[in-house]
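Bit of a strange request maybe. I'm writing a small parser for structure token strings and I need a real example to test against, not something I typed by hand. Could someone generate the tokens for this chain?
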Amino acid sequence: MNARYPMLLAGLAVLLCVPYFAQAYFLHLLIQALIWSSIYTAWSMMGRFGFVSLGHGAFMGVGAYVPALLWNYYDVTPWAGIPLGVLLSALLALVIGYPCFRFRVVGHYFALVTLALSQVVMLSIIAARDVTGGSLGFTPRAVGNSWYALQFSEKSYFYVIALVLWLGGLAVWRWIDRGIGREALDAISEDEEAAASIGIDVMREKLRVTVISAALTALGGAIYGQYFMYLNPETVSGISVSLQIVFAAIVGGMYDMLGPTAGALVTIALNEGLRVGFGTHFIGAANTIYGILLILCIIFMPRGIVGMLQKMIMPGRRTRAVPAE
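Reply from user aminoacidic:
Good idea to test on real output. This should exercise your parser:
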């Protein structure tokens, strides 16, 4: 039996035991890290193949707001609202992705299109303030402990949910990485014309990974909303969230399965450090630091933190080349 599997089972056992000995504050940070890790992992499924999206905040926003609005206005359980939000996000990815891929909108132009999408979704949420609460935010109706409402006062419940979400994201990442479509996506990221010439359905492969990425991002956004019980267009949608997702995935290492998780730990530590150290005296510092660290990372660590550590520990290990723009 491969020695890796007992190690993985032991690691999973440790993670499952965390709620029994962790303090509430630490558990709160860990839940956030797991939720954001799943979102960053979802983005990396596109980014690692050169499909740079700057609009994943749109998918996260749709995933977060749809179940909350259905719950407040129509008493629809999140167990039904969350799948609907994920479906709508996948449809939005299809609507924006099809014309882009059909007309060969790639590189910087594709990034700008997705960036505009993120802003459109955020402004739409703000404009519909009579329904969504606008820039003041939206609070789902609280009913206490309820599986029907997916609301729990004990953090241990959400920790298990976030853990399953994170593990599911890693499983999908590995499925794409080891699946038969991996070679096709690699070929497309290098040269679309050459990939099409050897019979690869470029549009189908790009749409497939885009829709999967958007759906998983929406699922992460939905769980985020259920956990915090407060939604604000600035925190779950828009350009700042989209750039945070890109930053974390790249800094952590989008070419490695655990890279986005490392990026989530970095962002959580940065945000909490700034909050504890400066309070409200340094508002907006996180985005400034994100930008500086992103520039430094792209120049000095193109494979991110995990990639750099792997290179230091196993210098002879072959890794997938970073695609050229």
